[in-house]
């Protein structure tokens, strides 16, 4: 069992930046592909960014390319999502997810992930 805890959400003005973190409790993340998803009110949970277990490969949703950066520090069992040039439409609950993998794949769909954090709210005001 992997317990994931997100932190770093909050309220920011449009054009601002925020970094959210996801830490694993009691488990090393070096064998897990990791991802960030978001869910706005009334919408389905959507893929934002994914990273391979080594950190060498990343994938982004088109809506955040060039603005968001996913990274990981396996020595700290933590994954980060740096969000720049934030827009009101980025407002959502952000969730991190993990899945045990045996290659350096990047997973981009909710069904591919077995473990989820509780989410952290990000609100971007206009």
Explain this structure.
Strand 4 (32-39) and strand 5 (46-51) form a beta hairpin. The chain has strands spanning 3-7, 10-13, 18-25, 32-39, 46-51, 58-60, 68-73, 78-83, 92-100, 115-116, 120-125. The strands form 2 sheets. Strands 2, 4, 5, 6, 9, 10 and 11 form a 7-stranded mixed beta sheet that branches. A 4-stranded antiparallel beta sheet has the order 1-3-8-7, with no helix packed on it. The protein has no helices and 11 strands. The mean pLDDT is 96. The protein is globular. The protein is mainly β.
The helix-strand sequence is EEEEEEEEEEE
Question: What is the mean predicted local confidence, pLDDT?
Answer: 96
Measured by DSSP, the beta-strand proportion falls in: over 45%
Q: In DSSP terms, counting alpha (H) and pi (I) runs of 4 or more, how many helices?
A: 0
Radius of gyration: 13 Å
Poorly predicted runs of 5 or more residues: none
Biggest sheet, in brief? 7 strands, mixed
User: How would you describe the shape?
Assistant: globular
Count the E strands: 11
What gap, in angstroms, lies between the N and C termini? 40 Å
What is the percent of helical residues? Answer: under 10%
Give the helix/strand class. mainly beta
List the SSEs and their pairings.
Layout: E1 3-7, E2 10-13, E3 18-25, E4 32-39, E5 46-51, E6 58-60, E7 68-73, E8 78-83, E9 92-100, E10 115-116, E11 120-125
Parallel strand pairs: 2-11
Antiparallel strand pairs: 1-3, 3-8, 4-5, 4-9, 5-6, 7-8, 9-10, 9-11
